[in-house]
Design brief:
single chain; alpha+beta; Phosphorylase Kinase, domain 1; Transferase(Phosphotransferase), domain 1; Recoverin, domain 1; 3 domains; 6-stranded mixed sheet; two-stranded antiparallel sheet; 40% helix; calcium ion binding; calcium
C-alpha cells in the first residue's frame, strides 16, 4: 500500500434524513440535560448501538458538539467509546455510538462501597491508557469522573472500561496549549481551573487522582456541603488518609495518589509517570496474555489487495467489543508504553512471541500501517488479525458493502470510493480510484457488485459473467 493512506475515521457515517431507515430505536437508556440515549439496532447488521438524540433547540454551544463529534471520530482506542454514525434531521442530531450496557463506574462504586486494590488498579490503568492516548493526540477531556466511565458489558468485574462524554473536551494543536475556561464537575476539577488562570492538559491528571482516591475509599478527597467549600478544599489540597477505609490500603497506592493530587501542576505527575508507577506495575494483569493471533489471517492480510485492506479496516472499525475481546487484550499487552498505538519495537517484541510467523517485521509493519502514520493503530491491528469467522459473516459484510455503496445502487463505483476516502484528506486522481475497482471487478463493468465484493473478501477469484 505504498503511497496509500486511509484512516478509520473515514467510515464514520454522516447522513441526513430519517434515522429509522437504518436503525430500529428501542427503549430509552438515559435522559440528560442535552437529550436522551436510546437502544438502537442496525437493520442490516443487527448490531446493537446506543443512540444519543440531541434536540437542536437545546444546543447552546454548537462548537462543543462539533468538538465532541470530531474527538470521537479520530479516537481509535479499546478503552474509548466508539462513534459509528452521525445523523441529522430537521429537529435532532443523532450520535450512533458503541452500546455499553454494563453501567457507569459511579454505580459500580456505590454498589461495592470501595474496590480492592487489584480491581482498582486494573480499572485505573485502563483510564490512564485511554487518557494518555487522547493527550498524545492533543485532546484534553476536562470532565473526567466515574459517571463518564462505562463498563462495556456485565458482569463489570470482567468488562473493559470505556471513556465517554467529550462535551467539554478540547482539541488542541499541541499539549502546550493554554486554556482558561472554568469548566468541569466540582468534585473533580483541578485547582488551577478553579483559579481561572491559565491551565493545561495536567488538569486531567488531577481528576485521575480524585477518581483513584474514590475507587479505593468510596468517597471523594475534597468534600463540602457547598460548591465554594469544595473549591476551598481543592485549592488548599487538603485531603488525608485518616479514615478506617485507608488502613488496609498499601503505601504504594497512597504514594501514587499523593503524586497525582499536587496543587502545583508543574510538580504533578505526568501520565507517563503514573503509568510506570510501581503500584500500577504490581497489579498489571495483561503482560502475560498469550498471543493467540490467527497466523493465516495475518498472512492473508499482508498479501491482500489495497481495496480488501480498506474493507477489513471498515469492518474492524464497526466491530463490537465482544467480537474482538481476545485481540483487544493482545493489543493492550503489546502496547507497553500505554499510548494506544504499536510502535515498531513494540510490534517486533510482540511478534517475536509467534515463532511460526514467516514474514519480516519491516514488511509486516508496512502492510499493517494502513494510514501510513508510522505506528499501528487499534483498528489497523484488528483489521490485520481478525479471524475469518468474524469478518466473513454475510450480514457484517453487507453492512460494510453499504458503507461504500453510497447511492444504494447495489454496486460500488470509483466515485463512491473517492467520496468516502477523500473526506479525510486522502486525495488521488481518477486513475487511482478506477485502479482500486479494477483489482476486483471480475466482470469488467467498472463497478463492484456484492458478489464480487464477497469474492474479494474470501480471496477467491470469480469467473467473469
Amino acid at each position: 500500500m505504498e503511497g496509500f493512506a486511509v484512516k478509520k475515521s473515514a467510515f464514520v457515517g454522516a447522513s441526513q434524513g430519517d434515522i429509522r431507515t437504518e436503525y430500529d430505536l428501542g427503549k430509552m437508556l438515559g435522559d440528560g440535560a442535552y437529550g436522551q440515549v436510546y437502544l438502537g439496532t442496525h437493520k442490516t447488521s443487527n448490531q446493537v448501538r446506543a443512540i444519543k438524540k440531541i434536540p437542536k433547540n437545546r444546543i447552546k454551544h454548537p462548537e462543543r458538539l462539533e468538538t465532541e463529534i470530531n474527538v470521537m471520530k479520530i479516537s481509535d482506542h479499546p478503552y474509548i467509546v466508539k462513534l459509528y454514525d452521525v445523523w441529522e434531521d430537521e429537529r435532532y442530531i443523532y450520535l450512533v455510538m458503541e452500546c455499553c450496557n454494563g453501567g457507569e463506574l459511579f454505580n459500580h462504586i456505590i454498589k461495592k462501597k470501595r474496590l480492592s486494590e487489584k480491581e482498582a488498579a486494573g480499572l485505573f490503568h485502563q483510564l490512564l491508557t485511554a487518557l494518555n492516548y487522547l493527550h498524545q493526540n492533543n485532546v484534553v477531556h476536562r470532565d473526567l469522573k466515574p459517571e463518564n466511565l462505562l463498563f462495556a458489558s456485565e458482569p463489570c468485574e470482567s468488562s473493559p472500561l470505556k471513556l465517554c462524554d467529550f462535551g467539554l473536551a478540547k482539541l488542541c494543536q499541541n499539549q502546550t496549549k493554554v486554556m482558561t475556561s472554568k469548566i468541569g464537575t466540582p468534585f473533580y476539577i483541578a485547582p488551577e481551573v478553579i483559579a481561572g488562570t491559565a491551565y493545561s492538559f495536567s488538569c486531567d491528571v488531577w481528576s485521575c487522582g480524585v477518581i483513584l482516591y474514590i475507587l479505593l475509599s468510596g468517597y471523594p478527597p475534597f468534600f463540602g456541603n457547598t460548591e465554594s467549600r469544595i473549591f476551598e478544599k481543592i485549592r488548599s489540597g487538603a485531603y488525608d488518609f485518616k479514615r478506617a477505609e485507608w488502613n488496609s490500603v498499601s503505601e504504594s497506592a497512597k504514594d501514587l495518589i499523593r503524586s497525582l493530587l499536587v496543587v502545583n501542576p508543574d510538580n504533578r505527575f505526568t501520565l507517563a509517570q503514573a503509568l510506570s508507577h510501581p503500584w500500577i506495575a504490581a497489579n498489571e494483569t495483561l503482560s502475560d496474555v498469550p498471543l493467540n493471533i490467527d497466523i493465516e489471517s495475518l498472512t492473508e492480510f499482508t498479501n491482500s489487495t489495497r481495496l480488501r485492506k480498506i474493507i477489513l479496516l471498515c469492518v474492524a472499525s464497526q466491530c463490537s467489543d465482544r467480537d474482538i475481546k481476545n485481540l483487544r487484550e493482545i493489543f493492550i499487552s503489546m502496547d507497553t508504553n500505554g499510548d494506544g498505538t504499536l510502535s515498531f519495537p513494540e510490534l517486533q517484541s510482540g511478534i517475536a512471541r509467534i515463532p511460526t510467523l514467516n514474514i519480516s517485521i519491516e514488511n509486516l509493519m508496512r502492510e499493517m500501517d494502513i494510514d501510513r502514520s508510522g505506528r499501528i493503530d487499534y483498528s489497523e491491528f484488528l483489521a490485520s488479525t481478525m479471524d475469518k469467522n468474524i469478518y466473513m459473516q454475510e450480514e457484517r459484510l453487507y453492512s460494510a458493502f453499504k458503507v461504500f455503496d453510497k447511492d444504494g445502487s447495489g454496486k460500488i463505483s470509483s466515485s463512491e470510493l473517492r467520496e468516502i476516502l477523500e473526506k479525510e484528506g486522502f486525495s488521488r486522481g481518477e486513475d487511482f480510484w478506477s485502479g482500486l475497482i479494477e483489482e476486483s471487478d471480475t466482470n469488467k463493468d467498472g463497478e463492484i457488485d456484492f458478489k464480487e465484493f464477497l469474492g474479494l473478501m474470501s480471496n477467491k477469484k470469480l469467473a467473469s459473467d
